[in-house]
Amino acid sequence: MVGFLPAGGISWRQLSAILRYIPEDHVRAMATQLSAAGVLNVNDDGIGFSDEGRRSAQAVINVLPAALHELWNVDVDRLDALLSLAQPIAAVATADAMTSPKVVDAILRPTASTTSFELWHALAKIRRHRADAHAAAWSHAAHTADSIQRLGPGPERDAIEQHTNELNSPIWSAIDATDRTRLLAGLAGLNGIGDPT
Description:
Shape: flat
Structural class: mainly alpha
Strand order of the largest sheet: 1-3-2
Number of domains: 1
Order of helices and strands: EHHEEHHHHHHH
Number of strands: 3
Distance between the termini: 10 Å
Helix content: 55-70%
Largest sheet: 3 strands, antiparallel
Strand content: under 5%
């Protein structure tokens, strides 16, 4: 939850963009359960942390920098270099019309941040931009979240992936081709890169 729930809460529309592959009734049921447990406040506009939920989420996010540093297990200079390459792309992703990067930009921050966290955060915004681009591409092709998950390989899937690439590509112009290669090679070399969100 701390990876996508903004500190100031989130509207149902924003939440549906982040959790588009989960049926809305399941999302609302999960939110209701978390509300009953005292973690969230839920209303017609959306959801947000309760005081207790915010304290718990902050405690989780506060350990993320150290966990990432241990997971990636690389020197700070290398992480600084990757961050300097990723940040311009993340900034363009956040400034674009897509919803998810803006939501991720507003999540809770650790009380003591590190380069590891800032890199994770930049990658989360980049990844969410592509997720939104993919959703826009399958919506343009008259698919729903359910139907796109059932769509197998073939020309229709290829066309949707190509459209996704076209919608996602402008953010990558924030850095030149050499730096894009350096970023991708550097990320591939991180130990346990995994899923940034």
